[in-house]
Amino acid sequence: MLKRAMDIILSGAFLVLLSGPMFLIAILVRITSPGPAVHWSKRIGKNNQLFLMPKYRTMRVGAPQVATHLLQDSGTYITKIGAILRKTSLDELPQLWSVLVGDMSLVGPRPALFNQDDLVALRNQYGIDGLRPGVTGWAQINGRDELPVPLKVRFDKEYLDNCGIVFDLKILLMTLVKVLRKEGVRH
User: Are strands 38-44 and 134-136 parallel, antiparallel or unpaired?
Assistant: First the structure.
């Protein structure tokens, strides 16, 4: 209950405070490549429920719907502004909406793509599927894009076993440090 209240208050406040920069980013995405500013990605949420997660569009329209690291030559799909948004994690800002409406939390395991069966199966095995996915999480700050699926799930399980407001605040602060240092981003 306290976690959900924190999610609502913080996501609402950030959406208001960042509305100007978010509008500017949307315009930049639109004028630098054809297509919508926001991409709604099919993701696996709490209890394996599908939901649509918004992100600023960083890839060309028509790019395959797979994890970026699985693309043969991801650079051919990522737009110029998209590369900047990914390195700075600004592409994640629209997910504050998903937090506000309850599809996501600020902190939790990152939501799997609808077709990441290996990740979903391992999370189900350890009960991680019962958590609301997060904008950031314990696995994110311990490797982000660089983690193989089994290690990512191990970190997700550690989060499940230790989750609470204090741990969430620690993860949020560590996320800020990682983002400012641009650590762990490959694509």
Answer: unpaired
Q: What are phi and psi of 36, to 5 degrees?
A: -70, 160
- The rounded distance, in Å, linking the Cα atoms of 58 and 129 is 27
Q: Of 77, 87, 92, which Cα lies nearest the Cα of 186? A: 87
- Nearest CA-CA partner of 93 in 5, 20, 9, 183: 20
pLDDT tens per residue, range 105-161: 999 999 999 889 999 999 999 999 999 999 999 999 998 767 899 999 999 999 999
pTM: 0.88
SS3 per-residue string spanning the chain: CHHHHHHHHHHHHHHHHCHHHHHHHHHHHHHHCCCCCEEEEEEECHHHCEEEEEEECCECCCCCCCCHHHCCCHHHCECHHHHHHHHHCHHHCCHHHHHHHCCCEEECCCCCECCCHHHHHHHHHCCHHHCCCEEECHHHHCCHHHCCHHHHHHHHHHHHHHCCHHHHHHHHHHHHHHHHHCCCCCC
Structure tokens at 95: 């997910």
- Domain range list for the chain: 2-181
CB atoms within 10 A of CB 93: 21
